Amino acid sequence: MIQDVYVDLYFLINVSMNLLCLMITASLLHLRVKRWRAIVAASLGALYAVAALILGAGGILGFLADLAIAILMCTVTFTVRPLSFFHLLKCTAVQMLTSMLLGGIMTALYSLLNRIDLPLDSLEGDGLSVWSFAILSAIAALMTARGGRFLGRSAKTRCITVHATLFGKQITLRALVDTGNLLREPVSGKGVIVADRKTLLAALPRDVAQVLSASDPAVWLSDPAVAHRVRVIPIRTASGESLLPAILPETLHLTEGKTVLPTDHLIAPAELAASADGFDAVIGAE
Questions:
Q1: Disulfide-capable partner of 200 in 98, 195, 210, 219 (CB 3.0 to 4.6 Å)?
Q2: Which of 124, 282, 102 is CA-nearest to residue 192?
Q3: Considering Cα of 249, then 251, then 256, then 260, what sign does the dihedral take?
Q4: How many Å separate Cα 63 from the centre of its chain?
Q5: Which run of H or of E encompasses 26?
Q6: 197 and 66 housed in the same domain
Q7: Residue 27 CA from chain centroid, whole number
């Protein structure tokens, strides 16, 4: 059976759906994206879809090609600075699952439109397919627009500037407000600002940085000059349980724009990698 496919509509539908999948992925993983990056990635994915349709790619090679283009799309969209391999795989997995879910929905809609007895008697041949593709394009565009608004709301991040004095050094950090940061000092109940390890240690006096670079809590508490301002914080991560050295600042105040916020936090160095989305630190929402 010969079936006509309108490549331009097919391309537009794929751009819309790819863009929507990337937006949903960003929203689910709380990632900020630049629109032009997402549009470029969605267009690359759509070009691949057209090429795969024409060339008839399938089987294992087709699956590997699908996986490669998904990784490429996520790399183009989400890689502002080098991402960890694990984080990139997570983005790709979420994007592919979202794509499969939305693909199923759009397939069901397409099947439904072809079963509806629309008043298209004046159209000859495959006119119904033309209108089906046109309607699906409109639906995809609407879903993308709605997804963009949803992403815009969810991607709005609060940035708080942390001004602190640690061991006589003035330090300024850009902190991302994250409701997922529930870390607190177990004795006093004070909140803990988790700062990028390299950034924080580089700003401290060299001898203090050397002490806090150790992985053994006994080293943190063995130096009297450091121990009196360090609290040991237990944390639990996906890789297991560990301890962090949290510093009690000499002075600390937070600003959000021109607003000065009350605070009573400790500051702990930790590996943030890509989880802080380019910020120097992460602070919990009070």
A1: 195
A2: 282
A3: positive
A4: 25
A5: helix 7-28
A6: no
A7: 7
Q: Which residue, of 154, 172, 203, is where some domain finishes?
A: 154
Please, which residues have CB within 8 angstroms of residue 239's CB and are 6 or more apart in sequence? none
Contact 15, 43 (CB under 8 A): yes
Same domain, residue pair 173 and 74? no
d(CA 29, CA 41): 18
Residues of the chain with pLDDT under 70: 1-6, 30, 32, 57-58, 80-84, 105-157, 180, 237-239, 273-277, 286
Helix (H, G, I), strand (E, B) or coil at 267: strand
Best CA proximity match to 245, nearest among 216, 282, 203: 216
On whether the CB atoms of residues 183 and 192 are closer than 8 A, the answer is yes
Domain that holds residue 265: 159-283
Q: Which pLDDT does position 1 carry in this prediction?
A: 45
The C-alpha atoms of residue 49 and residue 13 are separated, in whole angstroms, by 10
Element (H, E) at 283: strand 281-283
Together in a domain, 52 and 18: yes
Tokens of residue 85, six digits: 């391999």
CA distances in angstroms from 194 to 204, 245, 261, listed in the order given = 15, 10, 18
How many domains does one find in the chain? 2
Whole-angstrom distance, CA of residue 36 vs CA of residue 74 = 13
Count of CB atoms situated within 10 Å of the CB of 1:
2
- Give the SS3 label for residue 65: helix
Give per-residue pLDDT as tens, 62-106.
778 888 888 889 888 887 555 567 778 888 888 888 888 777 766
CB atoms within 10 A of CB 224: 7
Q: Tens digits of per-residue pLDDT, 232-269? A: 998 876 567 889 999 999 999 999 877 888 788 999 99
What is the structure's pLDDT at 200? 93
Q: Return the closest-CA partner of residue 156 out of 20, 32, 47.
A: 32
